Structure formats: structure tokens, C-alpha cells
């Protein structure tokens, strides 16, 4: 009788590893502190890190080499470097997201910040006057226009890429992929050159919405294309075998199967579109006034308002800029969390 | 009776099969609509360059080849060119890549190899969120916080490595305790750093995708031969993900070249080729357009359109190269 085999744990940290990491870290910090205070004329947090980190790596390698071979030392060093890089990047992310919210807290505390435009408030006025309602309205209207254009066209194009094959399909796919990194300012210039100069529209929220949709289209098509590709072909074949045509197969099988992933692709593209500044700068212009009509006159958006306000030299104006950025960031966060919740089953997950 | 058995059909790879019957009318219409949507997207994307070219033609024909060699930007006195801004764009993008590449590699390796499986989805979401953060927020962070709080970095770099021409800062005296920080902010370095943070998630997600697709069998084989985790990464994961790494980096480069607002918020515009990346001043094509758009004359607009066209062509080339490299890897293919 042998005991049933148990899967062995191959990974995981041993207690000595943790001890050497902590030991090396504290030794490195202490040594650098000693260097700073007593020995060399260094100063500043950056120099501290720049000296402490290599010291940590060296000490860590030394500690590991006490009871392991060179192979293990290299392994642990690589692990330490990867962990610290990931820590730096993710820490920076948290900081960047939290920064405008913390800095804008003061402006956000005033109710008029959400209910007024900047018509009554000059640059020197305190925070009790003026707000970003005009920018919020502009952002919502522009993104709605962009979505009205992007969602049907992008969805149809993604289905097109998946349902047909041939030279033309490949051409469209290549062009769309190359356009995903279209500089947003070029999208703005394009709409200005075509819609405004050639077709005679005026600089307005509508033009900005079009520019944003030019930028969002390739992003959405690409994401939706990947999701649609994950729909099992057995499902499609089953539908075709039951006698339904292509339209029915797409409408009743492919799209419902990919629904959560498609929603995610739309929401992610929206999150990108909401935050774009330069197309709005080029096609809609800046105005401090509330403008409900997206087809007539300038209309500002949250990112553009942030840009203009922060560029001002007045402290209250800067605070308003931070507040606008915080509102924008909150909007993006909501969209993003929504995308994750909707797409929680992962791309290709079956809907019930 | 001899029954002849027909040969069994040859083994076929499992994949979508072609329908034999003629599609009905509604399906033909459906396919027409799809084709139309594809065509519409293609036309929009293809005319971007066309419109920029027709609008910028006036400026380009006026300036001729000087457009590529002149550093100043005075379109109304017919003295303008993109030499300075183009060099500035490339410098900013290079700094961005130098920052973004190791960070992206570290995060991608961490997520695909080191992170506990429970955390992977959350971490992937975090990186995607980082990609969705508006560029104006990055610009805000860089222009009002990072460059002032971190001013020690360029100072330290320029003092220690000032003998490298790129890292020297002219007009800054490190020995003078009264000298201000202004010489070390609003520089190419800070713009590039912030843009690097912005493009990091894009590079990272392509890298992670190709790393996670490294075949499990090969990983296990390497483990069985006694490789450490780093050994597996070096001999299986990295070679397998090489084209993903290169392609992702080039995608990031394409984005870094086109970034507008974050650069415009940080940099102090200079219209001269300024290669001292740590010192104040620099420029980029997109920042130039954003700054000059509001006050430009009709001819100035044409000149800005021409600059936009140059940027468009540059990013397009980089992107085509990137997608060609990525297409050679297996990412996203054969998922059925």
C-alpha cells in the first residue's frame, strides 16, 4: 500500500528566501543611510534610491550565494528585478489615478462646480463661482455622437472582417490595424480638413464627436474582431447546419455569444474617446460658456477644459482644472469598471 | 458481389467549412451591408492622408524641400520647417521607449510568470486601466507634480554623466546653491518620461499576450531538465515572445510619436534642434500643432496640416512595421 501521490509544490517562497530579501533590504537601507549621513555628501531621495537599490541587489545575491549555487543566485536576482519593476509601474498607476482626485478635492467640494459654467467666473474669482458644467455637457454630447457613429459602423465592420474572407477583407484588416495608433491630433486635423473646410460645417461639438469617432473606430473594430474570432466555429456550423442563413447565424448565434466581449470593446473604446483632448481642441474650439447645441458654435469638453485651466497661472483656475480632471477620471473609472463587470465572463463566454 | 468502398475522405484540418448552397436574397443583402461597412471604414481611413495632403499642399509647394531642413516656424513670413520638431518628436519617443521598454517587460513577465494566478486577472485589468487613463491626466501629473518633485533626477544625471553630450545641461551650474530648478524642468526628458508611462501599458499588453502563449509543454520540459524559473524565462518564454516584444515596442513607438497633450503641457517650446534632453526646452510635431492651432492664419493652418501629414506618414510607417512583426508571431491566431 502506497499513499496516494500528492502533487508536489514546485514554486513558492521558502522562509529563508523571505529572510534574505528582508535582510538585504534593511541592510541596503541602513548602509545607504550611513553613506548619506556620515561618509559622502549625497542628498535627495533619488540618489538614495539610486544607491540603495544596487546595494540591495548585491547584498541579496551575497546572502543567496551563502547556501545556494550561482544558478539560484541568478534566478533570485531576476525575480527581484522583475518584482521591483512591476511594483514601480503599478505604484505609478495608482499614484497617477489618485493624484487629480486628491488635488481637485477642494474644487469638488463646491456644489456650484457641478451646476455652473465659467460664464460668470473670471480667472481671479474664488471657487464659489463657476464650474465645469459646460465641459461635462460637451463631453457627454460629443461622446454620444461618437458612439452613434462608431458602434453600428464598428460592429458591422468587425462582423465583416470575420464573416467574409478574401483580398478586400485582408486589406481592410491591415488598414484598421495600422490605424489603431492614429495620432489623435491627426484625426482632428482630418475632420477639420474634410468636414469643416470642405463640407462647410462650423467648429462645433458635432465635428468633435466625428473626430473622436475616427479615433475610436479602429480601436473598437480591433477589439471586437478579436472577440468575434473567439466564437467557437462549432456553434456557427451548428446554426448553419440547422438551415439558417448567414444573417440569422450572425444575429442569433455569433453576436449573442460574443455579447459581453463586444460590450467590453465598446466601453474600452469609449473610455479612450472620452479622454481625448486634441481632436476637440482642433475641431470644437474653446469656450467658457454652456452650449447645449452640439451643431452650432464652440463646445468644450472635460479634457480640453482641464488643459486650458491648468495652463492658467492662477491658483484657483488650476484647482478647477484638477477638479475637471478628477471628474473626467471618475467618468473613465466608471466606464472601465462597467466594462470589466460586463465582460467578467471573459471573451467568448457563453451567455445563458 | 464485390462492393467497392470509396476511399474515406482525406483527413481535413478542422475549421470553418464552405457552404455549398447558394445563399438566399436576405443573406446577399446582409453581405452587401457588411461590405459597405468595410468599405466605409476603409474610405475614412484612406482619405485621412489624402485630405491632409490636399490641405497641406499649399504650404509644402511654397516651402519646397526647405520644409524638411528649416528649424523655425514662422509660416507667415514663409520661413518654416519641421526639422526641429521632427527631431524633438523622435527624441521624446526615444526617451519614452527607454523608460517604457524595461517597465513593460518587467510588468509583463511579472503578470505572466511570477504573479499568483488569483492576481493575474486583476493585474491585467490594472494595466488596461492605465491604458485608458486620459493623456491630459498624465500631462497634469507630469507638469505639476513629477517634474518639480523629481528634479533631482535630471540634475543628478547631468552632474554624473554630463560628459555624454546628450545629458549635458548648458547654462546650469550645479555648484551654485542659488540656481533654480527651472533649468531641469519642461524638458524633453520629462515629456519623454510621462509619454513612456503612457505607452507602457500598450507595450505591456502585447508582450504579456505573447508570453502567456509560450507552449506549456516547452516550459515543463525546461523545468524537467532542471531549469530555474529564470532559466525557463530565458530559454523558453523570451525567445517565444520575441516578435511580440519587438512588435509591441514598435506599437508603443507609434503612440509615443503621436502623443499631443501630455507633451504640450510639459514642454517649453523651442524652435531649434535641441539635443540636450535634460535641459529645459524641446518640441514635437503634435505639440506644435496644438500650440499654434488657435492663432494660425489660413496659410499657417496649411503649414500645420503639412506638419500633421509628416507625423501621420511617420506613425503609419512605424505601425505597418509593427503589425508585420506581430503578425509573424502566433498571437491571436488559431483560437478556435
UniProtKB/TrEMBL annotation, chain A:
The lineage of its organism: Bacteria, Bacillati, Actinomycetota, Actinomycetes, Pseudonocardiales. It is a multi-pass membrane protein. It is found in: Cell membrane. The keyword DNA-binding does not apply. The chain crosses the membrane at residues 18-36, 42-65, 77-102, 143-161, 181-200, 206-228, 321-342. Residues 136-339 form the ABC transmembrane type-1 domain. GO terms for cellular component: plasma membrane. GO terms for biological process: phosphate ion transmembrane transport. This is Phosphate transport system permease protein PstA. It comes from Saccharothrix carnea. CDD domains: TM_PBP2. Keywords: Cell membrane, Membrane, Phosphate transport, Transmembrane, Transmembrane helix, Transport. Pfam families: BPD_transp_1 (PF00528). The keyword Transport applies. Gene3D superfamilies: MetI-like. Part of the binding-protein-dependent transport system for phosphate; probably responsible for the translocation of the substrate across the membrane. PROSITE patterns: ABC_TM1.
From TrEMBL, chain B:
GO terms for biological process: phosphate ion transport. GO terms for molecular function: phosphate transmembrane transporter activity. It is found in: Cell membrane. InterPro entries: MetI-like, MetI-like_sf, Phosphate_PstC, Phosphate_Transport_Permease. Gene3D superfamilies: MetI-like. Pfam families: BPD_transp_1. Keywords: Cell membrane, Membrane, Phosphate transport, Transmembrane, Transmembrane helix, Transport. It comes from the Bacteria. The keyword Ion transport does not apply. Residues 1-20 are annotated as: Disordered. The chain crosses the membrane at residues 36-60, 80-111, 123-148, 182-203, 260-279, 299-327. Part of the binding-protein-dependent transport system for phosphate; probably responsible for the translocation of the substrate across the membrane. PANTHER family: PHOSPHATE TRANSPORT SYSTEM PERMEASE PROTEIN PST, PHOSPHATE TRANSPORT SYSTEM PERMEASE PROTEIN PSTC. This is Phosphate transport system permease protein. The lineage of its organism: Bacteria, Bacillati, Actinomycetota, Actinomycetes, Pseudonocardiales.
Amino acid at each position: 500500500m502506497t499513499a496516494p501521490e500528492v502533487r508536489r509544490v514546485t514554486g513558492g517562497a521558502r522562509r529563508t528566501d523571505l529572510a534574505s530579501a528582508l535582510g538585504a533590504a534593511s541592510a541596503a537601507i541602513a548602509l545607504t543611510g550611513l553613506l548619506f549621513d556620515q561618509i559622502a555628501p549625497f542628498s535627495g531621495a533619488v540618489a538614495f534610491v539610486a544607491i540603495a537599490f544596487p546595494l540591495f541587489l548585491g547584498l541579496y545575491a551575497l546572502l543567496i550565494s551563502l547556501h545556494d549555487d550561482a544558478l539560484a543566485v541568478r534566478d533570485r536576482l531576476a525575480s527581484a528585478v522583475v518584482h521591483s519593476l512591476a511594483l514601480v509601474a503599478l505604484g505609478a498607476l495608482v499614484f497617477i489615478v489618485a493624484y487629480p482626485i486628491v488635488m481637485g478635492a477642494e474644487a469638488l467640494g463646491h456644489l456650484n462646480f457641478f451646476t455652473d459654467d465659467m460664464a460668470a467666473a473670471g480667472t481671479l474669482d474664488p471657487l464659489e463661482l463657476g464650474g465645469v458644467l459646460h465641459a461635462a455637457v460637451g463631453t457627454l454630447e460629443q461622446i454620444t455622437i461618437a458612439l452613434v457613429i462608431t458602434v453600428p459602423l464598428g460592429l458591422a465592420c468587425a462582423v465583416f472582417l470575420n464573416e467574409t474572407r478574401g483580398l478586400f477583407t485582408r486589406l481592410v484588416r491591415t488598414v484598421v490595424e495600422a490605424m489603431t495608433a492614429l495620432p489623435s491630433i491627426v484625426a482632428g486635423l482630418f475632420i477639420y480638413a474634410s468636414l469643416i473646410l470642405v463640407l462647410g460645417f462650423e467648429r462645433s461639438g458635432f465635428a468633435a464627436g466625428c473626430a473622436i469617432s475616427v479615433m475610436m473606430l479602429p480601436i473598437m473594430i480591433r477589439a471586437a474582431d478579436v472577440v468575434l474570432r473567439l466564437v467557437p466555429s462549432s456553434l456557427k456550423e451548428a446554426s448553419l447546419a440547422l438551415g439558417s442563413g448567414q444573417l440569422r447565424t450572425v444575429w442569433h448565434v455569433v453576436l449573442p455569444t460574443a455579447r459581453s466581449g463586444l460590450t467590453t470593446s465598446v466601453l474600452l473604446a469609449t473610455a479612450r474617446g472620452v479622454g481625448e483632448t486634441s481632436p476637440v481642441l482642433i475641431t470644437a474650439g474653446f469656450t467658457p460658456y454652456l452650449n447645449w447645441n452640439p451643431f452650432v458654435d464652440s463646445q468644450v469638453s472635460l479634457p480640453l477644459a482641464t488643459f486650458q485651466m491648468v495652463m492658467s497661472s492662477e491658483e484657483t483656475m488650476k484647482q478647477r482644472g484638477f477638479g475637471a480632471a478628477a471628474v473626467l477620471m471618475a467618468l473613465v473609472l466608471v466606464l472601465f469598471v462597467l466594462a470589466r463587470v460586463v465582460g467578467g465572463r471573459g471573451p467568448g463566454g457563453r451567455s445563458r | 458481389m464485390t462492393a467497392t468502398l470509396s476511399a474515406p475522405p482525406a483527413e481535413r484540418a478542422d475549421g470553418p467549412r464552405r457552404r455549398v448552397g447558394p445563399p438566399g436574397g436576405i443573406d446577399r443583402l446582409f453581405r452587401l451591408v457588411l461590405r459597405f461597412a468595410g468599405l466605409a471604414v476603409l474610405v475614412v481611413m484612406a482619405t485621412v492622408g489624402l485630405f491632409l495632403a490636399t490641405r497641406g499642399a499649399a504650404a509644402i509647394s511654397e516651402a519646397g524641400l526647405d520644409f524638411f531642413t528649416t528649424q523655425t516656424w514662422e509660416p507667415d513670413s514663409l520661413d518654416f520647417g519641421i526639422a526641429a520638431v521632427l527631431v524633438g518628436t523622435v527624441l521624446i519617443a526615444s526617451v519614452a521607449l527607454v523608460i517604457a521598454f524595461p517597465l513593460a517587460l518587467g510588468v509583463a513577465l511579472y503578470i505572466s510568470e511570477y504573479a499568483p494566478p488569483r492576481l493575474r486577472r486583476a493585474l491585467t485589468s490594472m494595466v488596461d486601466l492605465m491604458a485608458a487613463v486620459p493623456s491630459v491626466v498624465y500631462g497634469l501629473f507630469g507638469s505639476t507634480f513629477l517634474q518639480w518633485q523629481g528634479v533631482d533626477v535630471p540634475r543628478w544625471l547631468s552632474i554624473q554623466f554630463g560628459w555624454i553630450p546628450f545629458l549635458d545641461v548648458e547654462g546650469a551650474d550645479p555648484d551654485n546653491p542659488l540656481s533654480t530648478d527651472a533649468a531641469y524642468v519642461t524638458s524633453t526628458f520629462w515629456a519623454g518620461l510621462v509619454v513612456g508611462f503612457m505607452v507602457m501599458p500598450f507595450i505591456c499588453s502585447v508582450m504579456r499576450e505573447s508570453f502567456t502563449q509560450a507552449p506549456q509543454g516547452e516550459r515543463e520540459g525546461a523545468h524537467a531538465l532542471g531549469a530555474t524559473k529564470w532559466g525557463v524565462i530565458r530559454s523558453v518564454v523570451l525567445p517565444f515572445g520575441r516578435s511580440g516584444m519587438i512588435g509591441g515596442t514598435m506599437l508603443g513607438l507609434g503612440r509615443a510619436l503621436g502623443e499631443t497633450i501630455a507633451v504640450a503641457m510639459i514642454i517649453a517650446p523651442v524652435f531649434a534642434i535641441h539635443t540636450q534632453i535634460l535641459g529645459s526646452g524641446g518640441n514635437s510635431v503634435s505639440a506644435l500643432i496644438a500650440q499654434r492651432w488657435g492663432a494660425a492664419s489660413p496659410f499657417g493652418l496649411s503649414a500645420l496640416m503639412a506638419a500633421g501629414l509628416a507625423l501621420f506618414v511617420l506613425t503609419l510607417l512605424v505601425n505597418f512595421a509593427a503589425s508585420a512583426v506581430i503578425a509573424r508571431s502566433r498571437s491571436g491566431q488559431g483560437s478556435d
